[in-house]
Design brief:
Elements: H1 3-30, H2 34-64, H3 76-80, H4 82-91, H5 99-123, H6 127-155, E1 159-160, E2 163-164
Antiparallel strand pairs: 1-2
Helix pairs in contact: 1-2, 1-5, 2-6, 4-5, 5-6
C-alpha cells in the first residue's frame, strides 16, 4: 500500500472518530431520557478510545519512517452526514432532542463506520492496521446493535437485541 494511501486511511478514520465523539456528546447533552443519555456518553467514550488506538498506531509508524500527510476536501462527517444534518435541523431551538431521531442518526453513523473499516481492512496490506480496522469494525457493530436495541425499546416493537421480549403464541402442552 502506498504511503499516501495509508495516511489517507488514518486521516479519514481519525476524522470519523472525532466526529463521532462530537456528535455523541451533543446527543448526550440534548437527550433527557437517562438510558439514552448514558448510552450516548458511553459511545463518546468508546470513540475517544478509538482515537487513542489510532494515535498509538500512528506513533509506531512515525517511529519507523516518515509518513506522508493526507488531506481531503471531504470532511469525514460528510461520509456519515445527511442524517446528522437532518437531526440538527429537527432539534435546533428545542430544549430536548428527539431521541428516536438522534438514535436513528447514530445508527446510520455506526453503519457507515462499519462499512468504512471493512472496506479499508480488505484493501490494506499492513497486517497491524488490518487487525486494528477489523477490531474497530467489530466494536462499531456492537454499537450498532446497542443503538438498535434502544430504538426497539423506545418504539415499543417488543424486541430487545433482536429477540422478542414476549410471545403471544400459546405454549405447546
Amino acid at each position: 500500500m502506498a504511503e499516501l494511501e495509508l495516511a489517507t486511511i488514518l486521516a479519514q478514520a481519525v476524522g470519523i472518530e472525532m466526529d463521532g465523539l462530537e456528535v455523541y456528546l451533543r446527543f448526550a447533552m440534548q437527550t433527557q431520557v437517562p438510558t439514552g443519555k448514558n448510552m450516548f456518553i458511553r459511545l463518546a467514550k468508546d470513540e475517544l478510545q478509538h482515537l487513542r488506538l489510532f494515535e498509538e498506531y500512528r506513533s509506531k509508524l512515525l517511529a519507523g519512517k516518515e509518513v506522508a500527510v493526507a488531506s481531503s476536501n471531504l470532511k469525514p462527517i460528510q461520509l456519515a452526514g445527511p442524517e446528522l444534518r437532518k437531526i440538527d435541523r429537527m432539534t435546533k431551538g428545542r430544549a430536548q432532542a428527539d431521541e428516536l431521531a438522534a438514535l436513528e442518526a447514530a445508527r446510520d453513523f455506526e453503519r457507515r463506520s462499519i462499512e468504512f473499516y471493512a472496506r479499508w481492512a480488505s484493501k490494506t496490506a499492513d497486517l497491524e492496521l488490518r487487525k486494528l480496522l477489523l477490531t474497530l469494525k467489530e466494536v462499531e457493530e456492537s454499537h450498532f446493535e446497542l443503538i438498535q436495541a434502544e430504538i426497539d425499546s423506545l418504539s415499543g416493537t417488543g424486541f430487545w437485541f433482536g429477540i422478542p421480549e414476549f410471545n403471544l403464541e400459546a405454549e405447546p402442552s
